[in-house]
Amino acid sequence: xxxxxxxxxxxxxxxxxxxxxxxxxxxxxxxxxxxxxxxxxxxxxxxxxxxxxxxxxxxxxxxxxxxxxxxxxxxxxxxxxxxxxxxxxxxxxxxxxxxxxxxxxxxxxxxxxxxxxxxxxxxxxxxxxxxxxxxxxxxxxxxxxxxxxxxxxxxxxxxxxxxxxxxxxxxxxxxxxxxxxxxxxxxxxxxxxxxxxxxxxxxxxxxxxxxxxxxxxxxxxxxxxxxxxxxxxxxxxxxxxxxxxxxxxxxxxxxxxxxxxxxxxxxxxxxxxxxxxxxxxxxxxxxxxxxxxxxxxxxxxxxxxxxxxxxxxxxxxxxxxxxxxxxxxxxxxxxxxxxxxxxxxxxxxxxxxxxxxxxxxxxxxxxxxxxxxxxxxxxxxxxxxxxxxxxxxxxxxxxxxxxxxxxxxxxxxxxxxxxxxxxxxxxxxxxxxxxxxxxxxxxxxxxxxxxxxxxxxxxxxxxxxxxxx
Length: 469
Hints:
The protein is mainly β and about 475 residues long.
């Protein structure tokens, strides 16, 4: 569930790590050197053969694409570098528990004086693997149990079943993943899932049962995703005192939508980056392929990071979105945007600003949110070079607005409405990075620009998640 897309229940991520496969822990490949090989350091060499030992059910044609670049190496250092890159590609396939590399001089009658043989010693994953992990979402936590069948047909296909029990939702899903040979970034994924979520800020419970199919592929420097999703949504009241507006939205609906996403990510870390940028753009069209929901939805995310003096980092973020109902039917509470909380506009309660009825927040059809952050090392640098480097001091300024629009008024009226009654906050705190999984924030917040009906969290506020403004 995204930070502002609180009602869009997503199926479980079916790409959780298998036990024993840690591509992030890749080390430089081992090189077996003999005395006669030392003379090759500064001479041209020819890679005569590449062997892969340890294969059982993996097809040879899958690996040919991943290791073919080694034959283009011209010297020993180049061979080592290309072997390392090939090892990374083999581990990325998610079908091997271990991959080791041995480089040796060629042997046999046809061996050239400057010939080399490269051998990859691989250990395949078992036919069935289990995984257990915890997921930290936007102020939510869950336990995930999974069963995965890696390399089902011998070409890096994967079938996964995962069950998640969380603080606010219970989910399970079945997924089939199929990459293209020679281009792992181009892949197809099919999901069948059921997701149940509770949203106390809206006194709403939602259960989604759906199926989706998506194609992901690289284009220039971007990652593109095309997706079709059909979902049967069941909305109900979470509390007896739910407002009439929420009760009116309760019931069953069917959404069929086509969506496109584009991502450019040059950050050096997705959790607490110190350099690089991120651009995400997402479009969704519902109703064109059937269903009760009909709308066009656009949203984007922009983030820039710059390292300054004394190991400090300046970060700027901007989010925005718009949903345009098609036809006479208004947008659904399950499709609108939500804003506020420790992962977006700090100093406000979770998703508790904007349109509301009798204390239940109904979401908005348009929003924007911006953030300016300064991250610095802890004062006096305790634990420098070790555990202390996981902590950062955090100074922030957040601002944003969420509202409904009258689409007959025109763009200028829309901009004026989004510029009115801006909520903003500032403060400082401490950030803890939990590896490449998530981050925790403990901030002292001072909310400003509070409007009637907004819920605030003045003072200490705790946040946990993956995506922060």
